[in-house]
From TrEMBL:
Record-annotated Tyrosine-protein phosphatase domain positions: 158-411
Bias (Basic and acidic residues) ranges: 1-15, 42-54
Domain Tyrosine specific protein phosphatases: 330-402
PROSITE patterns referenced in this protein's UniProt entry, alphabetically: TYR_PHOSPHATASE_1, TYR_PHOSPHATASE_2, TYR_PHOSPHATASE_PTP
UniProt xrefs under SUPFAM superfamilies: (Phosphotyrosine protein) phosphatases II
Record field: transmembrane: none
Gene name as annotated: PTPN20
Gene3D superfamilies found in the cross-reference section: Protein tyrosine phosphatase superfamily
An individual GO BP term: lymphangiogenesis
InterPro entries: Prot-tyrosine_phosphatase-like, PTP_cat, Tyr_Pase_AS, Tyr_Pase_cat, Tyr_Pase_dom
Protein name: Protein tyrosine phosphatase non-receptor type 20
One annotated Gene Ontology cellular component of this protein: cytoplasm
Region Disordered, residue ranges: 1-87
Protein species of origin: Rhinopithecus roxellana (Golden snub-nosed monkey)
Amino acid sequence: SSPRDFRAESVKDYEGNDSEAEDLNFRETLPSSSKKNTPRSKVFENKVNSEKVKPSLRNFPRNDYEDVFEEPSESGSDPSMWTARGPFRRDRWSSENEEPAGPSQALSPLLSDTHKIVSEGELHQLAQIRPLIFNFHEQTAIKDCLKMLEKKTGTYDIMQEFMALELKNLPGEFNSGNQPSNREKNRYRDILPYDSTRVPLGKSKDYINASYIRIVNCGQEYFYIATQGPLLSTIDDFWQMVLENNCNVIAMITREIEGGVIKCYPYWPISLKKPLELKHFRVFLENYQILQCFIIRMFQVVEKSTGTSHSVKQLQFTKWPDHGTPASADSFIKYVRYARKSHLTGPMVVHCSAGIGRTGVFLCVDVVFCAIVKNCSFNIMDIVAQMREQRSGMVQTKEQYHFCYDIVLKVLRKLLTLD
């Protein structure tokens, strides 16, 4: 079947169309794919289409973000128009077809206090992925690779690959995530980090639902932290993880609210004038830029106990639809390439909502893009298999897996049209 037919199939996933539980103060248990208790040792045996609670926006904890999640005004019949108070103004998102999705879409501080970080022209250039060596021999190798991938997409090979990945029995323990004291730190009961790859916090190795992921391709290692979208109760833990691992880039592949459902609690300040005050950290928004497909935010994160300041760039992709995968690969290619260009120190932190679906797609295509630039071979199935050995369920659905191939095919076809 064609890629378009493949994407047309209805697939429910955490990063797509299902609701998710957010406010843990209103319940005792987390949503799961099964009504039975989750095994302590093999959570991955459960299917990952969890039954979730749909919290109403009225239950969203009220704090500095209350203006952002305010209901539309009575006078505004246009759903893309939201109201705000204080240092904010009524604003319209650049795309009239997008629905309101929290501060990532509808609201922004006054633009007069910011300066441009990157131009659309620069992003366009970044998306022109070209190998370091592009002689006749390399062009022939790329043509052969393209033919092989096109053959796969024209048959059921990709589906068979994904099913083979699904059937792999990966032994791993989830004891830390299942401890009673840590259960409320998980967005989903059956999406937990392996004990062997979880990211420890501090000297006491406290828990956060995050996994170290190292992908090796052609002798080159790519290092990431894959994590869930922070809950209100885990924002301090999230920033502790970012600072302790000296991370300078956060790739966020979700909007805060999608389809009226909370996907990620906003863990950053919404005003250039007022920092976000946390127990151990103070987060300043220094600059931001709204682009066609993503938002750039520049933060200074200060550790209160030491006064140490850390610069972090957050890149929030805003064009992933509530259902399925992006209709066009172009915007995601620009996003991934800009994230790679921005990366300087530590592992790159990547999250969506559950931290496995869209996050897995990002990691996979980032590695492939780097391989193309370095004239290296790559194997998408092997890359995904490596990820899944370190965090269960990475690249969660067959349409996400197919989207990885769609993106790579687009890059290779464009490459062969270059002079």
